[in-house]
Amino acid sequence: MEDNRVRIRLAWNNCEFEIEGSQKYVDTYSETIKAFTEILKNNPGTPPAKDAPPSGKQISIFESQPAPEKTTPDGLSIPASFGEFYHKAPKSINKTDIVLLASYFVQSQNNEQTFSTREVNKLLREHGIDLTNTAHFNKLNQDYRKVFKMRQGQYKVSEEGVDHLKDILR
After folding, report:
1. pTM across the whole model
2. CATH 1.10.10.10 domain extents, the chain
């Protein structure tokens, strides 16, 4: 999977604005970003409004726009970020299921609809989930027939794996 993540960060008088995601996701907020930069250009020395949050607080100008989700052909609704997808799962989820969840997320973002353990490991680490051996958990998912090998280094979540994820995400 090609890593085409984009991050935009603006800081102004102790207020910050940051958005991160795929290019397509960030593009959905292009008008909002343009409006925000126009405000900054037209008021460069103006301090924040009295009702602005105290220094160090983050503000959101996206409250009226929900994060876009896509529904896969399997019927699962995938948020734009893995963090949102991960938080849909119960806190008691085991490591094998975490890897399956991340595998499905990577697969859903990939044009070939496959994933590699390297991509899954990278995604998990980016979100502070450090598993000692992602390949081991991927192998367990293969043993449980939730994942199958497509070709060298590329895997796909099986129908059984998708059904298992649907059960987890209820």
Report:
1. 0.61
2. 69-168
